[in-house]
Design brief:
The chain has about 900 residues and is mainly beta. The strands form nine sheets. The protein has a 26-stranded antiparallel beta sheet that branches. Strand 38 and strand 39 form a beta hairpin.
Length: about 900
């Protein structure tokens, strides 16, 4: 009996001693801490869950063992540990592998100082992060913008235009006022700040994550952002050998194939990842066919513990036929899928409006760990855009009965012209018609570098440099002579004051440029074969930025600022005398400052407040008057002042953020477009039905205020809930000068108007939604999202009386299943089915006019049918099959 007591006492002492050892660590998903992950010591009842930052602590009953980490949607991971008596062992950062995200945690993350992720910063901001698993599961046939629709204060429009024609609006600000970054590289157009998603059709294939940082100057970089900053973090070179092949099919004959292979990183630190894909489809609306490819090559090299390099080359050559806004009356007559931009020639389908583009992007990332406290991150990048869009040039016959273009009739009319020679003197033609391409080429090079130094345990400093140079070329060329033998353009050249000089010049054109991305990449038509216009610009940008951040466990504060200079020069090779082709060079200095603080006043509660001021240079297209070499006297730096405050609650099963903001923006310029209807042709005789009309407002002041709420909840292991709500009040103030132009950028009209109190359009000012994901059988899950949109106004720029569209709601749903096969840990076959707009809701997604109803007008849901716009997409579906190896 005595021996038993001594033995029991011995085991109790040993157990007590070992129980004093602690095991700690941080669980991530590859981009940031993963809250609520389960951590258990194998073979015991000792377990815990990670906190909001992904951190955990366990009291180990033994000196050695293994912990098992699990989280819904990720593969379980086992990690060995050893802990001394009374000591603490930190296992560091452990990245889980998403069960449906192509092992994204195994990716070499490059350029951490450049890729300005919220998790890398202690100071809270209004942020939403979309993981690769969600991108790949829900994107279907849509643009990558579709992944952002369940984010507060984000509205996606333009999808009815065709593949790649969508737009993203953040807090009521259009794409030219939201900063988009690819691995730290700015990708907004330098001329106008706009984004063209057709250039980035492969983003859903290569994106590791998308992070939307809402608010003024969210990035610490020298980036001009008003609505927010959207970071696209791409895949880099993967550490392990493997890959996947996938097949996708969808409505309207959509078909897509993708293949990826990763060599893994060898003993010398080298590794390569390659991806190729091809897609094609007829498009949801009539006459919106498209086809494209995506290629991605990433080569990584870890020279030693201090130096890591990654080279990336990617591109997405594509063409797609386009659908433009038209009157509601036309849709009611011909159907909601009606598109008047196509017809037949010789019995074969033909479109008048095709967008084609190829924009290779290359960047080289270098991460240098100078010391434990100092890191340098640098990205050197370049992009080379080639392509454009087609349309009519000359005299276009009226659209015949049936609503489609009669290309056979156009050819017959052209062939009746003497010798088949078409000509134009300005916009006046001899009755001939050709399909032209408006070409937009560029070469863009830049460098962004950031040095981070941990000055003390609580104080860190970032300083950096942002350099860019851009050269653009814009001209028109004949794409299809439509039965003509030649075309002659004659114009009166301008002098240095942009006045007619009396010197006449003609281009006699006999060559065509193919409206396809690959030929456009390697061939540029000669200057004497160009029509209508031929100009370019050189833009140089230099900026410095810095951020000082102080943080403790419960408190943080920061100050950041940047100073930049932009230089612009325009060169017009078509309309000016040879000695006057180059404009005056314009330099503009801009700056921004921002400061903020946060305080964690209880274990699960924190608050923050930010304030910032921007003095931002105008875009190139707003500097020169009426697209001539004359400098616009109305152009000046835009002044933006923003305030933001928020509260965050976080726990293991529920997290939520509430944000409030106010942004005032003065001296800005806005541009909107619509298509010419009968009333426009009467008012402006030089227009033809269907021509694009551009309206530019200068001297605009806007004030945007709002509230945002978003939350995530995990009430049980197999169920995840999400939700969001945003309430905005976005208005114009004062007066503006409005200029109306045609497709050739010739001025049709200019007037001053009062817009005070007018509602900002193009995005719903009230949105809310709910979503869930439930795994009812292991590896088999169902998910759905419901969204509601209200207070959506027409996209007509600054006006006094805007038009409110009817509210609407949408439901999207999907089912996923993964079957593990073979002996490999990640060998699997995955299935995914999506149905968007499940209940086939009929709704107006956007309008580009604001014509009020009258006593005699025909109306649709209270809207005058003379208004032009788009109906939203009806029910669509897609299915994908993916094999991981």
């Amino acid at each position: 009996m005595k021996n038993w007591l001594l033995t029991g006492l011995f085991f109790m002492i040993v157990s007590t001693v070992f129980s004093q050892g602690k095991v700690t660590g941080t669980i991530t998903d590859g981009t940031g801490g993963l809250p609520g992950a389960n951590v258990v010591i194998k073979g015991s009842n000792t377990a815990t869950s990670t906190d909001f930052d992904g951190k955990f602590t366990l009291n180990s009953p033994s000196s050695t063992g293994e912990i098992i980490i699990s989280f819904l949607g990720y593969d379980n991971q086992t990690v060995k540990f050893t802990v001394s008596n009374g000591a603490t062992t930190n296992l560091g950062t452990i990245a889980l592998v998403s069960s449906s995200s192509n092992e994204l945690s195994e990716i070499v993350v490059m350029g951490k100082g450049i890729i300005d992720l919220a998790k890398e910063r202690k100071t809270p901001i209004a942020v939403s992060t979309i993981k690769a698993a969600d991108i790949q599961a829900k994107i279907g046939t849509a643009d990558v913008t579709q992944t952002m629709v369940n984010t507060p204060s984000v509205y996606v429009a333009g999808q009815a235009g065709g593949y790649g024609d969508s737009r993203v609006n953040v807090r009521g600000f259009a794409q030219d006022n939201t900063a988009f970054l690819l691995n730290g590289q700015p990708i907004n157009g330098m001329e106008d700040g706009k984004m063209y998603w057709s250039n980035w059709s492969g983003m859903s294939d290569i994106a590791n994550a998308i992070q939307i940082q809402r608010g003024l100057g969210s990035s610490k970089l020298a980036i001009s952002s008003v609505g927010g900053t959207v970071n696209f973090i791409t895949r880099a070179t993967e550490k392990k050998e493997g890959g996947f092949v996938s097949l996708g099919v969808a409505n309207d004959n959509y078909f897509k194939t993708t293949a990826t292979y990763n060599t893994g990183v060898n003993a010398k630190g080298w590794g390569t990842s390659v991806m190729l894909s091809h897609w094609q489809g007829d498009g949801y609306n009539d006459g919106t066919k498209g086809e494209g490819q995506t290629y991605f090559i990433s080569v990584g090299y870890k020279a030693n513990d201090k130096h890591s390099f990654n080279f990336l080359l990617t591109g997405a050559p594509q063409w797609h036929d386009q659908n433009f806004t038209k009157s509601i009356d036309s849709y009611l007559k011909y159907g909601r899928k009606y598109n008047n931009n196509w017809g037949t020639q010789g019995g074969e389908y033909k479109s008048e409006r095709t967008n084609y583009y190829h924009k290779p992007v290359a960047n080289l990332n270098w991460d240098y760990d100078i010391s434990d406290k100092t890191q340098l991150s640098t990205v050197l990048y370049g992009s080379w855009g080639r392509g454009g869009g087609t349309g009519s040039y000359g005299t276009k016959p009226a659209t015949p009965a049936g609503g489609q273009i009669n290309f056979d009739g156009i050819v017959a009319s052209n062939q009746a012209i003497v010798d088949g020679r078409g000509n134009a003197d300005g916009r006046s033609t001899n009755g001939a018609y050709v399909i032209r391409s408006s070409v937009n080429n560029h070469a863009w090079y830049g460098l962004v570098s950031n040095l981070k130094n941990q000055l003390t345990d609580n104080l860190s400093l970032n300083v950096g440099l942002d350099l860019r140079t851009y050269k653009g070329t814009h001209f028109r060329q004949v794409s299809d002579f439509m039965g003509l033998s030649s075309w002659t353009d004659t114009r009166n050249l301008k002098d240095g004051n942009s006045n007619p000089s009396g010197t006449m010049k003609s281009n006699y054109v006999t060559q065509t440029g193919r409206a396809l991305p690959w030929p456009a990449t390697f061939n540029t038509i000669a200057e004497d074969q160009r029509i209508d216009y031929d100009y370019g610009e050189t833009i140089s940008y230099g900026g410095v930025f810095s951020q000082l951040e102080y943080s403790t466990n419960n408190f943080s504060a920061f100050f950041q600022g940047s100073l930049s200079n932009q230089s612009h020069q325009r060169e017009d090779r078509f309309d000016y005398l040879p000695q006057d082709q180059k404009s005056e060079k314009v330099n503009n200095v801009g700056y921004n400052v921002k400061a903020g603080t946060s305080y964690k006043f209880a274990e699960n509660h924190s608050i923050y407040a930010n304030a910032g001021y921007y003095n931002r240079q105008p875009y190139h297209d707003n500097i020169y008057l009426n697209f001539t070499n004359a400098v616009n006297p109305l152009t000046e730096n835009e002044k933006i002042f923003g305030l933001e405050a928020g509260y965050t609650f976080s726990s293991k099963i529920f997290s939520a953020s509430l944000n409030a903001y106010r942004t005032s923006w003065k001296d800005r310029v806005t541009t909107t477009s619509t298509t010419a209807v009968a009333a426009d042709v009467i008012k402006y005789p030089s227009l033809q039905l269907g021509d694009l009309i551009y309206k530019t407002n200068e001297g605009v002041e806007q004030v945007h205020t709002g509230l945002e709420l978003d939350f995530t909840a995990k009430p049980i292991q197999d169920l995840s809930l999400t939700g969001f709500f945003s309430l905005g009040d976005w208005q114009y103030k004062g007066e503006v000068v409005t200029t109306t132009r045609d497709e050739s950028l010739s001025t049709l009209d200019q007037a001053k108007q009062d817009v005070d109190g007018g509602k900002v359009g193009d995005a719903a000012q009230v949105t809310y939604g709910l979503g869930f994901r439930y795994e009812f059988v292991k590896n088999l899950s169902i998910d759905a999202d419901w969204r509601y949109y209200d207070k959506l106004f027409s996209n007509v720029g600054a006006v006094k009386n805007n038009l409110e569209l009817p509210s609407y709601d949408l439901v999207d749903a999907g089912i996923s299943y993964k079957l593990f096969i073979g002996k490999g840990k990640h060998d699997s076959i995955g299935f995914r089915v999506n149905v968007n707009n499940v209940f086939d809701e009929v709704y107006l997604s956007e309008l580009t006019t604001a014509t009020a109803t009258t006593a005699t007008s025909n109306n649709y849901k209270g809207i005058n049918v003379a208004n032009t716009g788009f109906f939203g997409l009806g029910r669509t579906w897609n299915f994908s099959l993916r094999y991981n190896f």
